[in-house]
């Protein structure tokens, strides 16, 4: 079992009125790792953003971030928050006035890079507004926006040490303004650099850490890089919130993040799917079948069971004995099994509907 690094606790998202009243979401201090994604809609598109947020909630997200690049987006942010089933983070890049406007319009948390906000007076204006409303600030630094003096210190190279130094420097800036309700994130697309930077920061800082491999890539390459990077970091006990960054539908980020956390024992298992790698004995389209079973599995986020998809009716049930439910296909026919025992035989075309029936009955 992974021993989590002890960090400070922050709370956000308490909502007493509206469609989705909720208790505060706790980040850090050994609380469950928070799984989040970011909408890729235009924030000004209120209905489109709400539709995506609802889909993320169903998929298992705990928190969602939206970009606020304009005044119109900040005003729309408030209207979205009224109907959002998830706490919302306002993502601010340059204009400190937008950070303030987003907080005035219901942001549960804001994300800024103090180095991009500008002068210390502008940063202080943001901090003062957050302090007045007790809104957490996520301080984010990444390998693409290191300060010039830090780059010069490391001979113009981006390094783990430089990333960590930048992060701690920005934390110190905000804490010296009298505010400590903070989350810290350090992002790099280099897996090992991210790992080493997080280790350095975790030893010197008690803030909750948001972790992820930035600009990881497509569903294929991004999932591999993210799984490797997040597993390395999480296995050290580091990480209080997680995002898998993919060039894909944000729902895919939640599915991937959930599986990574489940695999490491950091999140309650939902429906998981295992399948055999196929061989010459396979008489069904196992690859397509496994994909369909995976789609079914994602529609039951509140269930906790393992499903096996096997290509051979002879060896399938025995090889997948540890699965709660499973199917094994043959030529035109298939078997359903439970805990390794065959419970019924069905036509190949009825396998999926029969499996869904068994999932719904399973408790």
Automatic annotation (TrEMBL):
Reaction equation(s) it catalyzes: (2E)-4-hydroxy-3-methylbut-2-enyl diphosphate + oxidized [flavodoxin] + H2O + 2 H(+) = 2-C-methyl-D-erythritol 2,4-cyclic diphosphate + reduced [flavodoxin]
Pathway(s) the chain acts in: Isoprenoid biosynthesis; isopentenyl diphosphate biosynthesis via DXP pathway; isopentenyl diphosphate from 1-deoxy-D-xylulose 5-phosphate: step 5/6
Domain named IspG TIM-barrel: residues: 25-257
Domain of life: Bacteria
Gene Ontology biological process: isopentenyl diphosphate biosynthetic process, methylerythritol 4-phosphate pathway; terpenoid biosynthetic process
Cofactor note: Binds 1 [4Fe-4S] cluster.
Pfam families: GcpE, GcpE_C
Transmembrane segments: none
Entry EC number(s): 1.17.7.3
Entry function: Converts 2C-methyl-D-erythritol 2,4-cyclodiphosphate (ME-2,4cPP) into 1-hydroxy-2-methyl-2-(E)-butenyl 4-diphosphate.
Protein name from the UniProt record: 4-hydroxy-3-methylbut-2-en-1-yl diphosphate synthase (flavodoxin)
């Amino acid at each position: 079992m992974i021993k989590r690094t002890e960090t400070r606790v922050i709370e956000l998202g308490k909502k007493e009125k509206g469609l989705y009243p909720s208790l505060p979401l706790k980040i850090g201090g050994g609380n469950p790792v928070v799984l989040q994604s970011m909408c890729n809609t235009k924030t000004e598109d209120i209905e489109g953003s709400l539709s995506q947020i609802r889909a993320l909630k169903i998929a298992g997200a705990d928190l969602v971030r939206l970009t606020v690049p304009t005044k119109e987006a900040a005003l729309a942010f408030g209207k979205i928050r009224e109907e959002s089933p998830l706490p919302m983070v306002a993502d601010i890049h340059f204009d400190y006035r937008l950070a303030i406007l987003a907080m005035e319009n219901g942001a549960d948390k804001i994300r800024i890079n103090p180095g991009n906000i500008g002068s210390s007076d502008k940063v202080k204006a943001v901090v003062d507004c957050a302090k007045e409303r007790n809104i957490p600030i996520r301080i984010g630094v990444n390998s693409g926006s290191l300060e010039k003096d830090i780059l010069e210190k490391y001979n113009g190279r981006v390094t783990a040490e430089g990333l960590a130094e930048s992060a701690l420097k920005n934390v110190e800036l905000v804490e010296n303004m009298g505010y400590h309700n903070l989350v810290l994130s350090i992002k790099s697309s280099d897996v090992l650099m991210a790992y080493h930077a997080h280790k350095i920061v975790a030893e010197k800082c008690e803030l909750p850490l948001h972790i992820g491999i930035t600009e990881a890539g497509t569903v294929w390459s991004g999932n591999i890089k993210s799984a490797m990077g997040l597993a390395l970091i999480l296995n050290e006990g580091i990480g209080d919130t997680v995002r898998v960054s993919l060039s894909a539908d944000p729902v895919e980020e939640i599915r991937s993040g959930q599986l990574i956390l489940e695999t490491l024992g950091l999140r309650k298992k939902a429906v998981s799917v295992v399948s055999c790698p196929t061989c010459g004995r396979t008489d069904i389209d196992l690859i397509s079948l496994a994909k369909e079973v995976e789609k079914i599995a994602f529609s039951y986020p509140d269930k906790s069971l393992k499903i096996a998809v096997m290509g051979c009716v002879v060896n399938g049930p025995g090889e997948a004995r540890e699965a709660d439910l499973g199917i094994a296909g043959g030529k035109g026919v298939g078997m359903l099994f439970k805990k390794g025992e065959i419970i019924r035989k069905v036509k190949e075309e009825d396998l999926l509907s029969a499996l869904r029936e068994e999932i719904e009955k399973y408790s």
